[in-house]
């Protein structure tokens, strides 16, 4: 029987608990032992029974709908250094773990991919320095790593949806609906900042779902003059047609085509100074990450948990590490290393102001 560990990493996302529950229970059903690594990579680096705990069937009861992650998460600096990864490898081996499933965003899965890449040299170093025995070395020469994508940002390539994105989207829409009522009452404009890091998915989809007047996202940048003129034209037209409220959604990563960040204050100043609108700013913040998981995320996290365990059990030492995604409503296995690379190349293209390339790379993830 295999000893399979699961860990959550990076920003929490609704549905992570459902994913852990599914992985733990599927592992048990398949005759394996299930472990949870608490506090993400930090727990992996620290190790020991406080951070690496065996999980039973009942330990995850009621986790399906719960928001956040009950096994904790952290953004860990030490794991970025080889010394941290060496401790992590030693801790996994000491706990007898031979497969690791990481539920996290692109940063966390990049970390998982580096760990996968380093594993052979890490275990060799542990053996050469006498920190593990020959027997442990033989048993742990290979580590199966699998990624499930948990992030509200929906910014990972090779999957149509990340676990948590639809819950966050629902929460944003709910918040915008609340704001709508007060905006309408006072005939005000609201500039609302939406999370998503460098990805505009949440802002774009929330904009469509709430019929926002204007949306600023990093993937479609314009010059300052262009977006200001376009926004004013559209908002004025809506007002002329009798609309009493104005909603502008700004992705937190919104930029101009010169890569200058666009803040909610920049946007509000334009609405005040050019259109004379009574304008307020709302930053939704971490409320977007809270609350229970919507049905879609519970379903996605559960099915992907089953697939992750099956993938780990089917992996041979030569199989590339899988990442579990969803494409056209089917749960799929994709190469973790390719997904990470593709995600990074979108960010690189944006930083090189090659927006066309960034858009076509984003399209790749949807059509491939
Ligand atoms: O990646 C999820 C996310 O919520 C992003 O949308 C946001 O930029 C970031 O995490 C906020 O990070 P923190 O919770 O560390 O402030």
Describe this structure in words.
The chain has helices spanning 16-29, 40-46, 82-94, 106-128, 134-139, 165-186, 201-210, 224-240, 264-275, 295-314, 336-351, 355-367; strands spanning 3-8, 33-37, 52-55, 99-104, 144-149, 189-194, 214-216, 246-251, 279-283, 322-327, 330-335. The strands form two sheets. The protein has a seven-stranded mixed sheet with strand order 3-2-1-4-5-10-11, with helices on both faces. Strands 7-8-6-9 form a four-stranded parallel sheet, with helices on both faces. Helix 1 packs across helix 10 (295-314), helix 4 packs across helix 11 (336-351) and helix 11 packs antiparallel against helix 12. It has 368 residues and is an alpha/beta fold. Bound molecules: 6-O-phosphono-beta-D-fructofuranose. 6-O-phosphono-beta-D-fructofuranose is lined by residues 11, 105, 151-153, 195-197, 252, 289. 6-O-phosphono-beta-D-fructofuranose binds next to loops. Mg(2+) binds at residue 106. This is ATP-dependent 6-phosphofructokinase. Substrate binds at residues 151-153, 188, 195-197, 252, 280, 286-289.
């Amino acid at each position: 029987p295999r000893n399979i560990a699961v860990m959550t990493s990076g920003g929490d996302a609704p549905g992570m608990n459902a994913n852990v529950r599914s992985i733990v229970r599927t592992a048990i059903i398949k005759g394996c032992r299930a472990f949870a690594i608490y506090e993400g990579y930090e727990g992996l680096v620290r190790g020991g029974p406080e951070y690496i705990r065996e999980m039973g069937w009942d330990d995850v009861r009621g986790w399906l709908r719960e928001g956040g992650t009950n096994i904790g998460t952290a953004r860990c600096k030490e794991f970025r250094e080889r010394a941290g990864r060496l401790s992590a490898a030693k801790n996994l081996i000491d706990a007898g773990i031979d497969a690791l499933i990481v539920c996290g965003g692109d940063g966390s899965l990049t970390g998982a991919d580096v760990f996968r890449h380093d594993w052979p040299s890490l275990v060799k170093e542990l053996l050469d320095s006498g920190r593990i025995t020959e027997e442990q070395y033989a048993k742990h020469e290979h580590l199966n790593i699998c990624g499930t994508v948990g992030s509200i940002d929906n910014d990972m390539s090779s999957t149509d949806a990340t676990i948590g994105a639809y819950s966050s989207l629902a929460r944003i829409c709910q918040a915008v609906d609340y704001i709508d009522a007060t905006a309408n009452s006072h005939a005000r404009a609201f500039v609302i900042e939406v999370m998503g890091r460098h990805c505009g998915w949440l802002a774009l989809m929330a904009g469509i779902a709430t019929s926002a007047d204007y949306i600023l996202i990093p993937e479609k940048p314009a010059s300052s003059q262009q977006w200001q003129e376009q926004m004013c034209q559209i908002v004025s037209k809506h007002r002329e047609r009798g609309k009493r409220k104005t909603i502008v959604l700004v992705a937190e990563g919104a930029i101009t085509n010169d890569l200058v960040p666009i803040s909610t204050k920049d946007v509000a100043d334009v609405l005040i100074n050019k259109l004379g609108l009574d304008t307020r700013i709302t930053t939704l913040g971490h409320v977007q990450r809270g609350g229970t998981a919507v049905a879609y995320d519970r379903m996605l996290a559960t099915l992907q948990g089953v697939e992750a365990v099956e993938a780990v059990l089917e992996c041979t030492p030569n199989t590339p590490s899988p990442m579990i995604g969803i494409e056209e409503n089917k749960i799929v296995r994709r190469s973790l290393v390719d997904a990470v690379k593709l995600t990074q190349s979108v960010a690189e293209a944006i930083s090189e102001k090659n927006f066309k390339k960034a858009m076509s790379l984003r399209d790749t993830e949807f059509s491939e």
